[in-house]
Amino acid sequence: MFSHLAILQVVVPLMGAPACFMLGKARLTWLMSLLISVVTCAISIGLLLQVYQQGPISYALGGWQAPWGIEYRIDIINAYMLLIVSAMGALVLLAAKDTALTDIDEHRRPLFYVAYLLCLAGLLGIAATGDAFNVFVFLEISSLSMYCLIALNKDRRALWAAFRYLIVGTIGATFILIGIGYLYMMTGTLNMQDLAQRLPAIADNNAVISAYAFIMVGVGLKLALFPLHYWLPNAYTHAPNLVTAFLAATATKVAVYLVIRFNFFVFSPSWADFIQLGNHVLLILGSVAVLWASWIAIRQTDIKRLLAYSSVAQIGYMVMGIGMSSLLSLQASLLHLFNHALMKGGLFLVLATIALRLGSVDTSQLRGLAQRMPLTFWAFVIGGLSLIGMPATAGFISKWYLVQAAIEQQSWLLVAVVLAGSALAAIYVWKVVEVFWFTDKNTASNTRHLSQPQVPVTMSIAMWLLIIANVYFGIDTRLPVTLSEMGAQLLSGAS
Amino acid sequence: MLIVVACFIARSKDLMVTVILFSIYGLLCASFFMLMDAVDVAFTEAAVGAGISPLLMLITLASVGRFQQAGRYPVVLIGFIGAVLGGLLVWATLGMPMFGDALAPVHQHVAPRYIEESGVEVGVPNIVTSVLASYRAFDTLGEVVVIFTAGVGVLSLLGGGSYQKRFLIDRIIDREEHKILRVVSKILIPPILLFALYVQFHGDYGPGGGFQAGVIFAAGVVLYTLFFGLKVVQQVISEMSVRVLAALGVLLYGCVGLVSLLKGHNYLDYYALAANPKTGQHLGILVIELGVGITVASVMILFFYTFARNFGGRGAVS
């Protein structure tokens, strides 16, 4: 069975979703989907060990060898992505007990789990495959389920946010499809490795260059890269709280992975000069994203929206790492994928817990939170410190590598951008902490007699696991650093 | 003609006109696909693009009203993006091989094996089917899941809620003047359903397969509903059973893969299914096409049910 782990990784949640669909009861569906996601996570650990010991795995679907059939190709980067996505998927689902989904209508909760599993399967499918068209198919699965996850919120504004995301996401997917279609037209193959071998011969063809442009813009839309990010704050703000935690921890990470995969594997062998130009564009956009989105985040009053803008800024860091495209900077990007999943997943789970207890995350409700929910408050502080990049938290590690990469290239401007981004992050995290800390007499007395629903134990466990992981991986950095180093070597070896 | 219709769609402020133009657009697309010798796609486009999806839009219009509210758009920006995009597309075509060029890369690399060997390896005369259902079967599984996801999405937005006692459609079709339509439809619908089954099981030999059969079957059921009412149809095909079937179709497809796994082959390797390789391939393709057909038909019918149930409360259509 171990030789089939690669496909089971995706098929288990993919088949789990329709199975859950037939169950009907929310509690039962939760247990079932939790079981599935834990199994998925276990598989990803098994895969990682396998790849770590034996090198890349190639799995021919249907027994047809690539390029005729579809190939699953798991190298260390794929395995690393699969681990991040499936672990975050399992943790958020652990928190998402049916009684925790207060912002979703009761009769829609079973569908939440089905859509969640579909989304998980889609994201894993993108991260596992070595076939360009297969990427598109699984991108569609994950995007469609994401739209309905967002729209599940009782709040009517969620519908509008989901609709806007749907329009933007569909344009992005169409661009990617056009790009892949062009590539197929020009090379006659869809397999990524095969593409990488066949593209250099026709590298200066108009259609191939357009394909690069279409794919990059399409993935950029999914990634919420700076000028294309308008859907993200709305979607994150109005989605159900736990959905936001899941999306923030996984969806954009997979899009970053796609940029890396296309930039360094598929296109990179073809034209060094042109990619260089693309990387410069990415570098500039990433830097602008860091500064501009952090600045906007400071001016937000809604905490969910604030964290959403902060996500746009953090994506900027990852893109900067890709743009610098040195060994160290790529490692920093890969590290930040992991660490950002930890901190944003953790922070949004903290918010979800608060929302469950107090019924909302409006700033007026949150005053004096530190007295009423001291533990949760400290969880937020730790997550926030990690977001700023304080030493001894996970966030510090990735920023440290990024700064080192910038120093290595002697571009002091980029060092300044990273530091300024951290300073701005300190300001917006402080703003939230300040709100939590200081009591406003009127609202404190108002909220006291509100009924306080019990927070499920599993939710607290998931939240604390993530928050502690932020500290743990800030001190014991072996796992992500080793993996990202191997990944970065693989990337720079390919280019 | 496609471009002309598309321009009209973009200009029209009357949504009813837009929907009807969409339907025409779908039909034109279908004919276009026919001309390009992609009969399989034409089937689906004709049933979905020209039939079911405009119908769903019409049902929605019945409750939201017919005219678009005037809005303001950043015309310059849209124009600029459109121009850049169009320019890029045109520029890209300069690098492409000529239409029908036998030396184009597409015909040089993967395709020759599909054309020359699929008859031996897969044993199915229709090459499209063998690529879709065997060489790239996992993509097709993904597509079925996409359709299933769409079903889940529609349910999560419109499902549940209050069940109206009398559906709008039932109210409209109660009137006597539809007698002729009913008689005609009674003649038409059995052949449609029969044709769907033919397309389903003949997909190995001629154009067709699960996707096409599913939408044609669903179109037949939808047509029946339009003339005889939702209540009558739901006595035969209840909403619950459609839901279960939608999931079952996906599971059926996936389980074929699991069977090959259990037999020690790779996922979706049909050679595992029978001792004789060709029988195995044939059996595999037949079963997964059935799974596709069931899911597609169920999800389409489910769409129609939920739309018909939720919209049209105000009786805007008269």
Automatic annotation (TrEMBL), chain A:
<keyword id="KW-0812">Transmembrane</keyword>
<dbReference type="InterPro" id="IPR001750">
    <property type="entry name" value="ND/Mrp_TM"/>
</dbReference>
<feature type="transmembrane region" description="Helical">
    <location>
        <begin position="6"/>
        <end position="24"/>
    </location>
</feature>
<feature type="transmembrane region" description="Helical">
    <location>
        <begin position="377"/>
        <end position="400"/>
    </location>
</feature>
<dbReference type="GO" id="GO:0005886">
    <property type="term" value="C:plasma membrane"/>
</dbReference>
<feature type="transmembrane region" description="Helical">
    <location>
        <begin position="454"/>
        <end position="475"/>
    </location>
</feature>
<dbReference type="InterPro" id="IPR050586">
    <property type="entry name" value="CPA3_Na-H_Antiporter_D"/>
</dbReference>
<feature type="transmembrane region" description="Helical">
    <location>
        <begin position="135"/>
        <end position="153"/>
    </location>
</feature>
<dbReference type="Pfam" id="PF00361">
    <property type="entry name" value="Proton_antipo_M"/>
</dbReference>
<keyword id="KW-1133">Transmembrane helix</keyword>
<feature type="transmembrane region" description="Helical">
    <location>
        <begin position="242"/>
        <end position="260"/>
    </location>
</feature>
<keyword id="KW-0472">Membrane</keyword>
<feature type="transmembrane region" description="Helical">
    <location>
        <begin position="280"/>
        <end position="299"/>
    </location>
</feature>
<feature type="transmembrane region" description="Helical">
    <location>
        <begin position="207"/>
        <end position="230"/>
    </location>
</feature>
<feature type="transmembrane region" description="Helical">
    <location>
        <begin position="31"/>
        <end position="52"/>
    </location>
</feature>
<feature type="transmembrane region" description="Helical">
    <location>
        <begin position="334"/>
        <end position="356"/>
    </location>
</feature>
<feature type="transmembrane region" description="Helical">
    <location>
        <begin position="165"/>
        <end position="187"/>
    </location>
</feature>
<feature type="transmembrane region" description="Helical">
    <location>
        <begin position="111"/>
        <end position="129"/>
    </location>
</feature>
<feature type="transmembrane region" description="Helical">
    <location>
        <begin position="412"/>
        <end position="433"/>
    </location>
</feature>
<protein>
    <submittedName>
        <fullName>Monovalent cation/H+ antiporter subunit D family protein</fullName>
    </submittedName>
</protein>
<feature type="domain" description="NADH:quinone oxidoreductase/Mrp antiporter transmembrane">
    <location>
        <begin position="131"/>
        <end position="423"/>
    </location>
</feature>
<keyword id="KW-1003">Cell membrane</keyword>
<comment type="similarity">
    <text>Belongs to the CPA3 antiporters (TC 2.A.63) subunit D family.</text>
</comment>
<feature type="transmembrane region" description="Helical">
    <location>
        <begin position="306"/>
        <end position="328"/>
    </location>
</feature>
<feature type="transmembrane region" description="Helical">
    <location>
        <begin position="72"/>
        <end position="96"/>
    </location>
</feature>
